[in-house]
Amino acid sequence: MAKSVKSPKMNLIRSVFGHLNAIIEVTKEVVMPSTITIHYPRERRKLPDNFRGLILFDKNACINCFRCSHICPANAIQMYIRENKYYPGIDYTKCILCHFCVDSCPTSALKPSKIHDVVFKSLDNMVVKPEDMINEPKVLREDYITVEYDFDEDLIMRRSKVKEKLVVEIDKPVRPDFVAGAANPENCIACRFCVNSCPQNAISFKLEDQQTMVFSIDIDKCTGCLICIRKCPTETLKAFRRDKIELEGNYERR
Amino acid sequence: MRGDKQIVVLDPKKYKYNWKVERPERVERSKYFGNLKTVVIDSGICSHCGTCAICPVKGIIVEDKPVDFPNWKRLCIDCGACIRVCPRYTYTPISGIGDYIEVFAGKSKRFVGQDGAMVSEFMASALEMGVIDVALFVSRDDEFRPYVVHVKYKEQLKDTRITGTKYSFAPVMPELYEIARYVDGIGIIGTPCMVSGVRKLQKEIPFYEKIKFTIGLFCTENFYYWQLKEFLAEKGGDLTKATKTDIKKGEFIIDYADGSSFRISVKELEEIVPSGCKVCQDFSAIEADVSIGSVGSKDGFSSVIIRSKIGKEVYDYMNEKGYIETDEVKMSVIQRLCEYKVKIHPYPRY
Hints:
The complex is a heterodimer.
Chain A: H1 12-31, E1 43-45, E2 55-57, H2 67-71, E3 77-82, E4 85-90, H3 100-104, E5 110-112, H4 130-133, E6 145-150, E7 156-160, E8 178-182, H5 193-197, E9 203-207, E10 212-218, H6 227-231, E11 237-241
Parallel strand pairs in A: 1-6
Antiparallel strand pairs in A: 2-5, 3-4, 6-7, 8-11, 9-10
Chain B: E1 10-11, E2 16-22, H1 32-41, E3 61-63, E4 65-68, H2 72-75, H3 81-85, E5 102-108, H4 118-129, E6 134-140, E7 146-151, H5 160-163, H6 172-179, E8 186-190, H7 192-204, E9 211-217, H8 225-235, E10 242-248, E11 251-256, E12 261-265, E13 290-293, E14 302-306, H9 309-321, E15 324-327, H10 331-344
Helix pairs in contact in B: 4-9
C-alpha cells in the first residue's frame, strides 16, 4: 500500500527567520571569513625556526671534514675542489631536504633557511656549487602579511604586518677544539689511510730506509675533523683537546 | 703484554708529532704480498689460518680456496702487515702437549655438542662472566657449508648446527677484523694454526689483545669444504645431507637424518689434505688458553687442557656453578697423537 506524502504546511514566520539567518551567515563570511587557507603569495605563513628549507653555506667556517657528504642518505652532496680544499655542493635533484648534513656539521658551516619556494631554470642549475650556496638566492617577495597558526585550543589565525626573515641564524655547536694524535703508535700497520684521507694534508710520511716509515702529524694544519681516526683500522690515532695536548710527553708546544 | 713504545721523535718548533713503523724485511724485490706469496703460499706451507686478512685494503681473500690476492701487483699498498702477522712466514714448528695448569675430561650439563660440548660450555661461561662480549662460532647451512656466526647470548648455543664439528676451513679471522673495532672482548675458537696466528697478531699489534679468550681444538688436518664434498661424493658419501660429521678410531663418519651412516677410513682422505697441514706439528694448540678435543676421554666426554690464568678462571667459575661433570683423561693417548703428528708431518719436508 502506497503512502501519500503531503507538502509541509506553509509557515511564514519560520521561513522569514530561515532566510534572515542565511543572510547573516553570508554577511559574516564576507566581513570575517572563517577559512584556514592563506592568500599566498600576498600572505606568507610564519614557519618554525627549524624549518627544513634550502641549505646555505659559510665557507670560512667549513673545515673540509666530509661529514655532510658521508651522512647524506640521498647521496646528494658532492665535494668540489676550491683553492686546494674540498667544499660541499648540493644536488637538489637528489636532495630530500632531511637536513642531516646541517645537523652533522660540527662548525655549523651549513645553515638552514626557510626558503622553500625555489625555481630552477634547468636541471643542470639544480646541481648547486659551493660558491652559489654562500649567498641566499634572489627571492621575489610580494607578501605583506605574515600568518601564524595557533593550534592550542580552537584554530586561531593571527595576522601581522611583520615581514619574516627567511635566513635563520643558528648558534654554533659547542665543540671542543680537537686534534688528532697517535695514542698507540705500536698499533700502526703502515696502511697510510690517515695520510690519504686527511683533507688538509696534515699527516705525512716519508721512508727513512727500505723498512722504516716515519709518519708525522702537523698540529697546526689539523682542523680536528677526525676523519683519520674513523679510517684507522687499529685505533692508532685518537682525538685530543688542543688546549690539553699532554699525552704521555709525546706532544710539546713551543 | 704491551711492548715498549717505539722511539718518539719530537720536533717542537714545527708542531709536529712523529712516529715510526718498522716494516719487515723483503726476501725479493716485489711488493710485500709478492714476498708472502713466494715464501708461504707458493711453497705450500700456508695453513689457511686467515690472519693475513688484516690487509687494510681487504685484498687478501680467505675463502674456500687457497689464500689469494687477485691483481696484487696493482692493488697491494705495500704496508707489510700480512707478513708481520703471518705465523708461517718465519716458521718454526711447535709440537708436543706444551705447558698446562690442569687437565681433565668434561661433559656439559647444559649443551649438546660433538662430544662433551665443552667448547660451547667454556664460551657460554666466559660470556656469562663478562670476560668476552662476543664469541665467533662456526655454524653450517643445509649443505654442511661452514659460515661464521657471532654468539652474544648463551641461548644461541642450543642450536646443534653451531656446536658440531665441521672439519673444513671457515673465514673466522676475516670476520674478526670486521668486528674488532666495535667490541671489547672477543672469544675465538680455532685450529692450532689459527691460535698461532692470533698469538703472532697480538705480539705484533697490541690492539688485538681484545681477543681475550682463545680455545684451540685438537687437530691433525683440516679440509677445504668443496674438496671434501667432491671427494666424499666420489666415494659414495653425501656431505650435503649430513646431520653430523665425526672422526672416531681412524674413520670419518657421516650421520644422516634417517639414522644411517657412511664410513670411510681417514687414510683415504690423505690425498685431499691441504699442503699447509702437512708441515704442521702442533696437535694440541699449545698457544691457546684452553685446548679441547675428544682424544683421550670416554665417549660423551671431551678432554680439556687448561693452559692460562684466564682459562683457569673460567674453569673455576664452571665448577662453582656446577655446569660440568668431570672424569679422568688418558694423557698417554694425547701424547701418542702429538708424536704421531710430528711423525707424519715432517718439517722441513726434504
